[in-house]
């Protein structure tokens, strides 16, 4: 029988150098999109899909993420004393239950593959999700779990980009197609310009079988001298099936300045209390420019 996906690994140990100086003392995962930290948006998305346990792979300077997913007693008491019951209830609703979060440290930022490997003891011997918390793609975990129920094996969410962008990402090759999903026949991390096998980028959501850990254990270095998850998955694909899933939605890369700004506008425009005023402000700014 196919094992259910219960756990998600969220690697948050990266340095966020693209977003300095904002990320000097504040982890990029705690930057806010409208009024929620990016990482809260991602946890919301995964809880909606039925994920029960969140494993954060953190690093130095990231302790505030752990505090964010804890009860804040003084704040709770103050909200109640002041009659702000809605705000109090909203905070409670956002919080995974006791025991549903785990934190482990990646002591050195040796790459995404290494960060995932750091979660091996907590994941154990079951398939699991990997969610890159700086990529916002609402509804993607629901789609990922549906694809997993159809195919089993390993699943990677992909999105199409312009051909001149492919050198910045992990890229998959496309085999047999089944509507929204397809067999992956190859993978490459950050291919040199003009050599990418397709325009489909690996976009930050994965379902992986636990055999990936023994491959990552070897610590082989890839692009940029880092232990790359893509290289580990490529190795695993020699013995297991990998499927791509076309994510039907838009991903915002909040680790880049442009992606972060656009995410704030897009999520802001979806808020009924902000929509009209924000639209007017944007239109006024565009007229001025
Ligand atoms: P990125 O390359 O987007 O993150 O890694 P970064 O290194 O934080 O950002 P820049 O490029 O310097 O601006 C993708 C994901 O992998 C995690 C990051 O936290 C991010 O979620 N990561 C990356 C780790 O946890 N450890 C690493 O060693 C590298």
UniProtKB/TrEMBL annotation:
It is an enzyme of class 2 (transferase). Residues 8-266 form the Nucleotidyl transferase domain. One of its GO terms (biological process) is UDP-alpha-D-glucose metabolic process. Keywords: Nucleotidyltransferase, Transferase. It catalyses: alpha-D-glucose 1-phosphate + UTP + H(+) = UDP-alpha-D-glucose + diphosphate. It holds the Pfam family NTP_transferase. Its EC number is 2.7.7.9. GO terms for molecular function: UTP:glucose-1-phosphate uridylyltransferase activity. Belongs to the UDPGP type 2 family. This is UTP--glucose-1-phosphate uridylyltransferase. It comes from Methylobacterium aquaticum.
């Amino acid at each position: 029988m196919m094992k259910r996906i219960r756990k998600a690994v969220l690697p948050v140990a990266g340095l966020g150098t693209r977003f300095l100086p904002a990320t000097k003392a504040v982890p990029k995962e705690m930057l806010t999109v409208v009024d929620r930290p990016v990482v809260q948006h991602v946890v919301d998305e995964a809880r909606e899909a039925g994920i029960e346990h969140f494993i954060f792979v953190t690093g130095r300077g990231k302790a505030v993420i752990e505090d964010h997913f804890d009860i804040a007693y003084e704040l709770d008491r103050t909200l109640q004393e002041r009659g702000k019951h809605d705000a109090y209830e909203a905070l409670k609703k956002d919080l995974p239950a006791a025991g549903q979060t785990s934190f482990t440290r990646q002591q050195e930022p040796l790459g995404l593959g290494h960060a995932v490997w750091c979660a091996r003891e907590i994941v154990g011997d079951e398939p699991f999700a990997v969610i890159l918390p700086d990529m916002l793609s609402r509804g993607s975990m629901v789609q990922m779990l549906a694809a997993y129920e159809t195919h089993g094996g390993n699943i990677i969410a992909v999105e199409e980009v312009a051909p001149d962008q492919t050198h910045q990402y992990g890229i998959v090759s496309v085999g047999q197609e089944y509507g929204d999903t397809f067999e992956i026949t190859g993978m490459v991390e950050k291919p040199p310009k003009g050599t990418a096998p397709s325009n489909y980028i690996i976009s930050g959501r994965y379902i992986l079988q636990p055999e990936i850990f023994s491959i990552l254990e070897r610590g082989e270095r890839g692009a940029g001298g880092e232990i790359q998850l893509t290289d580990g998955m490529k190795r695993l694909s020699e013995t297991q099936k990998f499927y791509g899933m076309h994510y039907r939605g838009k991903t915002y890369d909040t680790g880049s300045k442009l992606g972060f700004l656009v995410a704030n506008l897009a999520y802001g425009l979806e808020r009924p209390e902000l929509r009209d005023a924000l639209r007017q402000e944007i239109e006024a700014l565009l007229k001025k420019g």
